[in-house]
């Protein structure tokens, strides 16, 4: 049995569970990229939240798939304080940037204090707090085009 991997159409208004995203295992490196059907997120209890406006996230918003599906402009999501063991997935539809900002004193990977991640095209980024409270790590970028910005 084979699975069809297809591009998400440019006019998509929601993920219907038949789309695929590329993720990467924690080990990284050659052979670590995997294709995952979006329906799998719901199957393991990950809720999809569509944001059409800026939103300050709370700890209760983590462990979900956050998107900018339906947005008519850039959406900025501000992360809650980074505590070890927390994380979230972010999917940009590609029509508008999806900006992910740390809270006031946290960092995102090597970006430094206050730097944000901007998804500039269709793609998926996973942020996790793995080893250090106060630091969000980009643990997978699914070949998304993003920038760390001040």
Say which CATH homologous superfamily of the domain at 49-149 is assigned.
Answer: gp9
Question: Could you give the distance between the termini?
Answer: 47 Å
CATH class of the domain at 49-149: Mainly Beta
What's the total count of β strands? Answer: 13
List low-confidence stretches.
1-14
Question: Which sheet architecture does the biggest sheet show?
Answer: 6 strands, mixed
CATH topology name of the domain at 49-149, in short, is: Jelly Rolls
**Assembly category:** single chain
Give the amount of beta strand, in percent. Answer: 35-45%
Give the count of helical stretches.
1
Global morphology: globular
Q: Approximately how much helix is present in the residues? A: under 10%
Please give the radius of gyration in angstroms.
15 Å
- Placed side by side, the strands forming the largest sheet appear as 3-5-7-11-12-9
The H-and-E topology, N to C, reads as EEHEEEEEEEEEEE
Give the name of the CATH architecture of the domain at 49-149: Sandwich
pLDDT averaged over residues:
74
Describe the structure.
- The chain has 150 residues and is mainly beta.
- The protein has a domain at 49-149: Jelly Rolls, CATH 2.60.120.
- The protein has one helix and 13 strands.
- The strands form three sheets. A six-stranded mixed beta sheet has the order 3-5-7-11-12-9, with no helix packed on it.
- The longest helix has 5 residues, at 39-43.
- The chain is globular, with a radius of gyration of 15 Å.
């Amino acid at each position: 049995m084979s699975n069809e991997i297809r591009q998400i159409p440019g006019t998509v208004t929601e993920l219907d569970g038949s789309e695929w995203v590329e993720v990467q295992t924690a080990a990284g490196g050659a052979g670590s990229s995997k294709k995952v059907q979006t329906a799998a997120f719901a199957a393991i209890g990950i809720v999809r939240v569509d944001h059409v406006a800026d939103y300050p996230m709370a700890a209760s918003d983590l462990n979900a798939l956050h998107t900018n599906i339906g947005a008519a402009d850039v959406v900025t999501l501000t992360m809650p304080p980074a505590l070890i063991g927390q994380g979230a997935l972010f999917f940009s539809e590609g029509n508008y940037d999806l900006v992910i900002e740390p809270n006031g004193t946290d960092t995102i990977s090597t970006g430094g204090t206050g730097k944000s991640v901007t998804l500039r095209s269709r793609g998926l980024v996973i942020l996790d707090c793995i080893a250090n409270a106060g630091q969000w790590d980009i643990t997978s970028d699914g070949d998304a085009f993003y920038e760390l910005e001040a």
